Amino acid sequence: MTRALYPGTFDPMHNGHIDIATRASTLFDEVVIAVYDMPPKRLLFTTDERVALARESLAHLPNVTVVSYRGLTVDCAQVHDAQVIVRGLRNVADFEYEHQIGWANNQLAPNVDLLCLFCDDAYAYLSATILKEVASLDGDYSHWAPAHVQEALRTKFTHAAETNRVSHSDTKLSHHG
Ligand code: ADP
C-alpha cells in the first residue's frame, strides 16, 4: 500500500490545491493532506478553519484524509507512514523552491520520496494570496475556489470590514468626544 502526504498551508484550500489532491488520490492508495500549523507567514484562517475547509473540499474522495501538523514535514510523513511527499508546481520559482526543500528533506529522511505534479493550466497563476486579495476587494473569484471556501472568505472580509468601520467610528468618537 502506498500512502502520500500532500503538505501545505492551504490558507484557504483553492481549486489548484484540489486539482493536485484529486490527481494524487488516483495515483496512491491513500493521500493525507497535511495542513501546516504555524508557517512563517500571516494567515487569514486558523488551523482548525483551514482543516475544516480542506475536509469539505475533499470529502468526495474516499482515500483522502486531512490532518494538521507542526514541525518538520518529513516527521509528519513518518508519523503517517507516508512514503511520498506530493507537491504542486506552477512555475520555475516553485521548482527552485521545491528542489531546495526536497534536497533538505531527502537529507533528513532518505526513505521519503518527492513527487511534484505540474498544476493544471487553469490554475497556473492562482495562489492563496491572489485569491485572498481578490476576495478582500470583492472581485469575482468563483472559478478559483469551491462555494464553501468562497462563503468563508466572504464571512472573513465582511467581518473585517465591520470591525474596521467600528474602529473608525470609535476613533472619531474619541477624537470628537
Ligand atoms: P499557496 O499559498 O501558494 O497556495 P500552499 O503552501 O498552500 O501555497 O501550497 C501547498 C501546495 O500546493 C504546494 O505544493 C504548492 O506549490 C501547491 N499549489 C499552490 N498553488 C497551486 C496551484 N494554483 N495549482 C497547483 N498547485 C498549487
Short structural description:
By secondary structure, the protein is an alpha/beta fold. Helices cover 49% and strands 18% of the residues.
Structural description of this entry:
The protein is of the alpha/beta class and 177 residues long. The protein has a single domain, classed as HUPs (Rossmann fold, 3-Layer(aba) Sandwich), CATH 3.40.50. It contains six helices and five strands; from the N terminus they run βαβαβαβαβαα. It has helices spanning 15-27, 47-57, 73-79, 92-108, 128-136, 147-176, and strands spanning 3-8, 30-36, 64-69, 84-89, 113-118. Strands 3-2-1-4-5 form a five-stranded parallel sheet, sandwiched between helices. Helix 2 (47-57) links the parallel strand 2 and strand 3 (64-69). The longest helix has 30 residues, at 147-176. Residues 168-177 have low confidence and may be disordered. The structure holds adenosine-5'-diphosphate. Adenosine-5'-diphosphate is lined by residues 8-10, 16-17, 19-20, 87-88, 90, 94, 119, 123, 126-129.
The rough form would be described as globular
- Number of distinct beta strands: 5
Tell me the β content: 15-25%
Which structural class do you get from the secondary structure elements? alpha/beta
Q: What is the third-level CATH name, the topology?
A: Rossmann fold
Question: What tags apply to this protein structure?
Answer:
177 residues; alpha/beta; Rossmann fold; 5-stranded parallel β-sheet; 6 helices
How are the SSEs ordered, and which strands pair?
Layout: E1 3-8, H1 15-27, E2 30-36, H2 47-57, E3 64-69, H3 73-79, E4 84-89, H4 92-108, E5 113-118, H5 128-136, H6 147-176
Bound molecules: adenosine-5'-diphosphate.
